## 1
Amino acid sequence: MNGMISLDKMGVDIHEKIELASEVSSNLLEGNAFLKMQDASLNVLLRNFDRMLVLNSKVNTPGASVPEREYLQLEYDVLRKHFVSVEDQEYKGTRLFGDGKSDLIRLYSYEFGNWLTVDVSQPDLNDPSIALIRNYGIYSSKESVLVDKSILMQAMKKILNYRLINNAQEKRIGNSLNCIRDEIGRLTRVDAESNSKIIQFSDVEVNRMIDTAELMVDKFAAPQRPLELAVM
């Protein structure tokens, strides 16, 4: 007769780790989707600001007539209204952009056995240079404050900086996801190997292990339980 001892017990902790890593991975994927949507909106704003810069140049062209300038202002207003709509965009109930007072969104990650946090920011679209674009035009016979080239350039610089931060955060999450995927793959392989591994022992070896277990139980007056093997 051959004795067979299964290593099922070994898989319990591995299953928990796989489940935890999967939950963390799902959370990070949500963060990644949030950042991609945010970056797409920032890219639209950047294109709109670039067009506003062209409109500003045309409206200040010597010899431009009043009707021409008014028409350029109308196009500017359309872009400005779109900008206001971008401010209110959300991803699953979470605003893409903050008001300068919002805290960083912190996502939990688990890498190489350590807990850590990955930051996701909500860019402030109430920055003074950006706010001026939202509140004032490039041509008006009534308004005393007008948006000039320097303001538009500052706003574009600010949006570019937001995109750099966004891309760095997205890259950081990507690195975390790669680490977690590798860890899930490793744990899954170990789990599969442990589930399929059946250790064969001779009758003599089985009897010796049982005798040893019984001696240990007697020695420490411990309750009897099945013999467990831990395979490293």
## 2
Amino acid sequence: MGVSCNSCGGMYLKCKCKIEEPVEVFGGPVEVTGGSVTDPLIVDSALTQANLEGKMYIVNTDTQLLSGTNDNLSLILTNPMNSGVIAISDFVSVTALDTNFSVGIRRNPVYSGGTTTTLTPRNLNTAFPDNAQITAVRQQGNTTVTSGDLLSRLLIQQGGEAIFPFSGRLVLTPGNSISITGNVFAGNRSVAVGTSWIEIPL
């Protein structure tokens, strides 16, 4: 894996030292155990560890048909004030078929117009229930943003999928919300928005 042992300078998979210090792999902190031929190296990222503990979730809007030429589809995540967790984003994806579209991410947005549907975030570890503290809604139609900070307006392209691998760089704290919006520029187009995150106790 190209990771050197802190003790002898050799490669972890070849040296016989026991690993007791945390190291960084691919620019991120990981937990390392093992370190000899008979005691194999085990590397767990924070995302993988959270998933093993049943703290990683995913939600998507499913594919929605937007009939108006300026309709949009938003996925809104809210972290309740007393949730006791912070949410750390893994990725965001927006897909639109056969049309130019843009992607916007906002902090604490307020929308007017359109229709709202409550969604259920799913636990990515099938051994655990769907017990996310973060709530999710789908807002679609001819909606207007009346307030909220624009964090990013990232892409306009001719159909396809836009994936943003935040990998922990987007954090949702209690009492705040974020929205991921796909906006199309032609009527009768299908759009889907999805995201995944881990929840860490405060």
